Amino acid sequence: MRTTESEIMAAVTNGADATYYYYLSMKLVNALALQLVLGSGSGSVTVTVEGTIRDDGTDKEDLDYADVTDFAFGSASYTASDILIDNEGILAMCRWIRVKVVASTGGADDADWTIYAIGKG
Question: How confident is the prediction for the chain on average, in pLDDT?
């Protein structure tokens, strides 16, 4: 991620019922905001944020992550559009974060989500 420029982490229309992960390096970032644009269709879309401090060359997908959503943003999860701002700089202590999206629409596969991220170095 280039700092002070927003990027689209995800843009999904009619996503199938499943769990999705989107990764973001925090190596050059000391402040982060995420904008969630969620449309659940006939079910729900639930977003959480997970972090890891591990940085030993292991692929980011294979690292162990802990849920930091409540700690960083004050809510256990998000099911509606919102802007999440890490005012305390908690995520800056992580090497990687991953945004977890769980789409559950009862098989209708009509959930939509877009996730924007902006960081500041």
Answer: 92
